[in-house]
Design goal:
Elements (H helix, E strand, L loop, with lengths): L1 H38 L6 H19 L3 H22 L9 H23 L17 E3 L2 E3 L1 H23 L1 H11 L1 H6 L4 H23 L9 H16 L4 H21 L7 H12 L9
Antiparallel strand pairs: 1-2
Helix pairs in contact: 1-5, 1-8, 1-9, 1-10, 2-3, 2-4, 2-8, 2-9, 3-8, 5-6, 9-10, 9-11
Length: about 290
């Protein structure tokens, strides 16, 4: 019995941290799935837009004295507006071309964003302290200490993922979006401005990435490379869940975070590669992903 309790004390902290990492995977892959599922654009700038959300929150605090809670609302709106400009001026011109053009364009935009941030603020990370009110929710589980802010991240990410899924799958707006991806001329005939809808959809996907960036700012160092550390794993999450599948991105994000946490205990050397092993197996057995359609 004592051995079992000891093993649980070793496993539980990593499981909890894995689920919290999974919340970031789910939130970021959700934005990617929204953009690809609705616009058929592989948005390689997603990691840089995640980073931009964290930097906007940090700049608001450092230069304007605007704290965490206003930044949690304002930073996604600002970065989402930049995404709208990016879609109107560049991405909208590529909708009728092969996916490769959109991938190359957004990859180039990611390099530009990261380069500008690095030249302006350097490569070293900037500290962004979590709101002090979360200290009252700190948890101590034996020898394991769980900051209350991480609990908030898990709750906030889960609520945003659920709300996004409900909007896309259960509302009239979501039905218009899904119809516009398959029959844009028909939707346009009903008086709906499809180009504007696509622009706002891209902006919403970018805003989700920025929201995740603000949530991540107090946990990870706010640096130009923080998005690059996530984006490859997040693309693997999207592929495993199914390209464009909203529910697939959410479920797979949390699931892979949990698997990574358990692997960290059982076989630490494989914790960074287990996601890609799973991706290879899924692609061999279900090329469309776990929740995707062929």
């Amino acid at each position: 019995m004592e051995d079992l309790l000891f093993e649980l004390q070793l496993v539980m902290p990593q499981v909890i941290l894995g689920v919290i990492n999974g919340a970031f995977y789910a939130l970021l892959s959700l934005g990617l799935a929204v953009i690809f599922g609705m616009l058929n654009v592989i948005n390689f700038a997603h990691g840089a837009q995640f980073t931009l959300g964290a930097f906007v929150a940090w700049m608001m605090l450092a230069y304007l004295g605007i704290g965490y809670w206003p930044a949690l609302l304002l930073a996604p709106l600002i970065v989402g507006a930049l995404g709208v400009v990016m879609e109107r001026t560049m991405i909208a011109r590529l909708y009728k071309l092969d996916h490769l053009y959109g991938l190359l364009l957004t990859f180039g935009c990611a390099l530009v964003i990261e380069g500008l941030l690095r030249n302006s603020f350097g490569s070293s990370g900037q500290r962004y302290a979590p709101p002090p009110e979360f200290k009252t929710f700190d948890l101590e589980l034996g020898d394991f200490f769980l900051p209350g802010y991480r609990v908030w991240v898990l709750i906030a990410a889960s609520l945003v993922c659920l709300a996004t899924w409900l909007v896309i799958e259960k509302t009239k707006i979501g039905s218009y979006l899904r119809a516009a991806t398959e029959r844009p001329q028909l939707v346009q005939a009903f008086g709906i401005n499809v180009p504007r809808m696509m622009t706002l959809t891209y902006g919403a996907g970018v805003a989700l990435a920025a929201f995740a960036g603000v949530l991540a700012a107090p946990i990870y160092s706010v640096s130009p490379a923080m998005g690059a550390n996530f984006i490859i794993t997040v693309f693997a999450v999207v592929v495993i869940g199914g390209m464009g599948s909203i529910m697939g991105s959410i479920v797979t994000g949390f699931m892979l975070g949990l698997i990574q946490g358990i692997t960290e205990v059982v076989y630490p050397e494989a914790s960074q590669t287990v996601v890609f092993v799973i991706m290879a197996v899924v692609l061999l057995t279900r090329p469309a992903g776990l929740f995707g359609r062929a």
